[in-house]
Amino acid sequence: MSKLTALITGASSGIGYELAKIHAQNHYNLVLVARSSDKLANVKKELEYQYPVSVQILALDISVAVNIQKLTDFTDSQSIRIDHLINNAGIGVYGKYWETSVEDHLKLIQLNVNALVALTHHYSKKMVAHGSGKILNVASTAAFMPGPFMSTYFASKAFVLSFGEAVDSELSDTEVSLTTLCPGPTKTGFEAAASGMKESGLFTKSKVATAKDVALDGYDAMMKGNPVIVSGLINKLNVFSIRFSPRSWVIAITKSIMKPVN
Ligand SMILES: NC(=O)c1ccc[n+]([C@@H]2O[C@H](COP(=O)([O-])OP(=O)(O)OC[C@H]3O[C@@H](n4cnc5c(N)ncnc54)[C@H](OP(=O)(O)O)[C@@H]3O)[C@@H](O)[C@H]2O)c1
Which tens digits make up the pLDDT trace of 111-131? Predict the structure, then answer.
């Protein structure tokens, strides 16, 4: 059985589940985190049946600070060395900012930003001390522009990208790397979880990737130690063109894509 272990947040579905599967195929033991214990139990059963790996599951809401502590206490107390940290769990809130619940926006920031920052800190310190390790933080192509109708989501992903590039640069003289994965629209449970988002042009007008393809792109880039990976050719072209476009145009175009279809 493998001696290397990957910790993956948001591993019960979508991109996180596919990243868990790729790691199992490559014989990594797994620590998987999400809120739904039944879904996690199914993933554990499936992966342990198919691959020679051990899968530990923790049903925790990591938007709550005390649960982040529970997670790090668990791996520390069990002396589980985390070789790959995948900060994938993330949520969106869709709608005009002032018409949506501020509690939902604050929860989004707790999960998309605070949990990712806290876990990156805890495990990067251990990885540097140990002399090896890889971190994959899941941002989005949303990181490259402001996003009307998903203001805090786009801003949280801009944070994840900027934070990741900076920390990866600080890590350059160590054996540890941090890769930021930027997927475009991807077929997962994400748009259903961000109520109303399904009705936006983002998913009806854009080319939607599979979670498996996105996960493979992220895994490959992380293994190579690349700082940033934008998944998919069209997304790469879009992100490239944003660099040369006036900010006001970018916001206007994003608004027209993000607005409710009806
Ligand atoms: N789908 C897209 O179009 C897209 C595009 C760009 C970037 N992304 C990013 O990709 C990442 C994965 O999303 P996905 O598309 O795969 O969506 P998903 O299928 O909805 O997966 C989200 C995962 O996060 C978990 N999660 C949600 N809230 C949590 C919490 N408070 N504590 C712990 N786990 C929590 C969910 O499990 P439970 O519900 O069981 O907790 C689930 O496993 C996110 O960071 C998202 O922002 C997605």
Answer: 999 999 999 999 999 999 999
